[in-house]
Every structure is written in C-alpha cells, then in structure tokens.
Design goal:
Layout lengths: L4 H17 L13 E5 L5 H10 L4 E6 L5 H12 L3 E7 L10 H6 L4 E4 L9 E4 L3 E4 L6 H5 L4 E6 L1 H16 L7
Helix pairs in contact: 2-3
C-alpha cells in the first residue's frame, strides 16, 4: 500500500493543478504533427523564425519577453507592409529597456501592447495564420541566437494554434498600448 501512496498523491496533485490552472492541452493532438526544432547558439533559430514570418499569409500574433532582434523585427515590419495583420504583446520591461524593438514596431504601425499584469510576461511565442506555433525558450534577441543555449519549436497544428490564440487573446485583453 505504501508503494501506491506517492502515485495517488501525484495523481491528486495533477488533478488539482489542472482544475486551478484550467489550461491543459491533450498532447495526443500532436500525433503526426510536423515539428521543426532548432537550438542555439548559432543554430539557425533566428533564420527559422524569419522564414516562418515570410511565409505568413494573413496574421502573425507575437508574445515576447525580451525583443531586441533587429532581423526578426524587420521581418515583422515587412510582413505588416505586405498587409499581414501583425500584433505584438511585450513584457513591461520593454518600456524601459535601452535596446528594444517595441518602439521600432510601434513606429512602423504595428499594434504593440504591454502586458504589465504579471511579474514577468515571459512568453516567447508567435502564432502564424492560426496554424503555426513558434515557441520555446528562445527570446527574440541577438544574444539568444549568438551566445545563449536556447531552443525553438515550429509546430504546424491548427488545434495547438487555437490554444495559443486563446491565451494570446486573454493577455491582450489586459494589456496596454503603452509603448513609448
């Protein structure tokens, strides 16, 4: 009986987390789903993200903690200029960071919001055309590409993208358009 107590406690704890968080995803949705994985430093993460941005047809929604990558920012601006709906939610630290893409994106006409409801808005995601999710530990920065050990996953899944879209929308609702 003692052998089963840790298992029972784990299952009860898991259920409590699921009930409290309310945002669980059945990973069986990812069966037979195309996934590309990139690692840094110098593993092509930035190029892979730019390539995905360049393939967008209608919409790119971004959440980022730190965003200083000029190549990624330029790719988003180019997409915006082609008529693609680009919107960005950033962490409040981007209001005061010395080198940030927040002002660059806003000045290019891209709706740019600040999520200051949380201690850190630490998401690093893009949802492209409601079917491609870019996620991982990779901050959209030069250091993430050149110096850090990071990862990027590019996942083609409408089901997964819909979950990320719901989360993105929840954060946009309480974010402010406060980029200087």
């Amino acid at each position: 009986m003692k052998r089963y107590i840790p298992i029972v406690l784990f299952l009860v704890f898991s259920l409590l987390i699921d009930v409290q968080v309310g945002h669980t995803i059945d990973l069986t949705l990812l069966k037979d789903t195309p996934v590309k994985i990139y690692f840094s430093p110098r593993g092509g993460c930035t190029d892979a993200i730019i390539n995905a941005i360049e393939q967008a047809k209608a919409e790119i929604l971004v959440q980022a903690y730190s965003f200083t990558s000029a190549p990624i920012a330029k790719a988003l601006v180019n997409a915006h200029k082609k008529g693609i709906n680009v919107q960005v939610i950033l962490d409040k630290s981007q209001r005061s960071e010395k080198y940030t893409s927040a002002t660059f994106l806003k000045n290019a006409g891209i709706p740019t919001f600040i999520d200051d409801r949380h201690a850190i808005a630490h998401n690093k995601i893009m949802v492209i055309d409601k079917e491609t999710v870019i996620t991982g530990s990779f901050n959209f920065t030069k250091a993430a590409e050149d110096k850090n050990t990071e990862n990027v996953l590019i996942i083609k899944s409408k089901e997964l993208a819909s979950q990320y879209l719901m989360n993105w929308s929840e954060h946009k609702e309480h974010s402010e358009g406060g980029v200087p």
